[in-house]
Design brief:
The structure holds two protein chains of two kinds. By secondary structure, chain A is an all-alpha fold. Chain A contains eight helices and no strands. In chain A, helix 7 crosses helix 8 (about 155-180). Classes of the chains: A mainly alpha, B alpha+beta.
Chain lengths: ~180, ~300
């Protein structure tokens, strides 16, 4: 049986709405990883949805919706970089690795398991205190790095390292959850 | 997210960069759907359908809801559908496509605004109010005619309490909706009002209101009226009234009391023409005072 994302019929544009709802957060993450800017990422994803909508009749049903949209986003991102005279700073190997990861996340969600953002909720709770505090202040309270470092009694280089370790720990946690989803 | 240059500009390897993006996106909206994004997307796709050269199925006679408030009176669940609502409520045909947004009875455009961050402090007090509508966990979705704009920014505000002890009346139209200290004005106890002078009479399509929202509480006798008379003596139209016991003497309201949230209260202005918008309240479930953080009035700008 095909995964749900393959079931879209070109004529059935109502399905598009449901697909947009299912996929938009992961696509925003993807675009953000490419562009490293919130506003640009939102524009890229929105433009990709509009392009997809225009070309819905040409949608290749042998591919899944998320992969199709990510492909459009990549093209939009390259266009964006060209317009702003900036170099592509993500190599093909990285793009391929990301594609694998997003495909896993999509598949996990499509099979009824918690999606990556829900899983992240859980993983965040299991971070060691020192990492959790750094992540909370930096990402969720948007405090400047210098202020966080001072508050934690560490220097900024240590804070950067701590954040990097936290991201690594979260990635490992997500991998465990995505690859071996919890049983109901 | 604010710029945090020393940290934002550092080079991250592939996986780390992806996790960074995931965390930033999670911090922005949590694990929920981004209703604001979906609403904007729906508007864009609406526009797409009006572009020439796109194959569009002929419009059908599908009936769709006209301008209406999507979340008030316990319809918050409807909001959860957000953009999906726009498309999926049109189940009339499998290839509806652009027909979905090309009805003769168009919704217009989705009304968008900025929302303040969630800031809930202190222990909530019991709210003994009948038919209380819980705070929504998502933004309301509401459609207004094309060309509708924010009319109230920086406009003059007057009040039944013209000398507030905390804050000042100009905070109500300054565009800042945060709930912290320094962002709200506190009016005396009892039935009090604030009034915004739009400077010109115009068709008003929405009023978006934020009382104090950093504690779960409900304000009593929330009433919104529109008039061309600054004294509201020679006629006014009431567009919202949740005074369930007629204590404000404007009649028993048909709207339900609601719990304050960062999403505010979105009132359908119903295209009522007027220059002045007056908003009443009569204390709240936590204390007897009246508080306003922001009021936005949307309408078609007069030429």
């Amino acid at each position: 049986m095909n995964p749900p994302s393959l079931a879209i019929a070109p004529a059935d544009r109502q399905t598009f709405a449901a697909q947009a709802r299912d996929h938009h957060r992961c696509l925003l993450i993807y675009a953000r990883a490419l562009a490293r800017n919130e506003a640009t990422a939102a524009d890229l994803v929105q433009d990709a949805f509009v392009a997809a909508w225009r070309n819905l009749g040409r949608f290749d049903v042998t591919r899944d919706f998320g992969a199709w949209l990510r492909g459009i986003i990549r093209n939009k991102w390259r266009e964006y970089l060209r317009r702003h005279a900036r170099e592509v700073d993500v190599d093909d190997a990285t793009l391929e690795a990301w594609e694998c990861r997003f495909a896993q996340w999509d598949a996990t969600r499509d099979t009824g398991n918690a999606d990556v953002l829900d899983s992240l909720d859980d993983c965040l709770k299991h971070l060691p205190d020192s990492m959790g505090e750094a992540v909370r202040r930096f990402y969720y309270q948007e405090e400047p790095g210098e202020k966080i470092a001072t508050a934690l009694g560490i220097d900024t280089a240590t804070l950067r390292k701590r954040l990097e370790r936290a991201r690594h720990a979260l990635r490992s946690c997500l991998d465990r959850k995505i690859l071996t989803p919890a049983q109901p | 997210m604010k710029s945090n240059l020393q940290f934002d500009n550092i080079s991250l390897d592939g996986d780390d960069r992806l996790m960074d993006a995931l965390l930033r996106e999670h911090a922005r909206v949590g694990s929920h759907a981004d209703e604001g994004f979906l609403t904007r997307l729906a508007s864009f796709l609406d526009e797409e359908c009006e572009s020439p050269g796109i194959a569009i199925s002929p419009a059908s006679t599908v009936k769709r809801p006209s301008h209406r408030l999507a979340w008030s009176l316990g319809l918050a669940a409807t909001v959860a559908l957000a953009a999906g609502l726009i498309w999926q409520s049109q189940r009339a045909g499998p290839s509806a496509g652009c027909r979905l947004v090309q009805q003769s009875e168009r919704r217009g455009m989705a009304l968008l605004t900025d929302f303040p961050p969630e800031l809930i402090e202190g222990t909530p007090k019991a709210m003994s109010v009948p038919n209380l509508v819980n705070a929504p966990d998502q933004a309301p979705v509401f459609f207004v005619p094309q060309g509708t704009a924010l009319l109230s920014r920086e406009k003059k505000v007057t009040s039944s309490d013209d000398n507030p002890i905390i804050g000042s009346l100009d905070l109500i139209t300054d565009g800042d909706k945060q709930a912290g200290e320094g962002y709200f004005v506190e009016l005396l106890d009892g039935l009090q009002w604030v009034q915004i002078d739009l400077e010109k009479s115009t068709a008003i399509h929405a009023i978006w209101l934020w009382h104090y929202h950093s504690q779960r509480r409900a304000y009593h006798d929330v009433i919104v009226q529109i008039s061309n008379d600054p004294e509201f003596k020679t006629g006014f139209t009431t567009v919202y009234n949740n005074d369930y016991d007629n204590s404000a003497k404007f009649g028993v309201g048909r709207d339900n009391p609601y719990v304050e949230s960062r999403f505010g209260l979105l009132v359908d202005g119903k295209g009522t023409k007027g220059r002045y918008v007056r908003l009443y309240s009569n204390g709240n479930t936590s204390n007897e005072m009246n508080h306003y953080i922001e009021v936005e009035v949307y309408g078609i700008p007069s030429k």
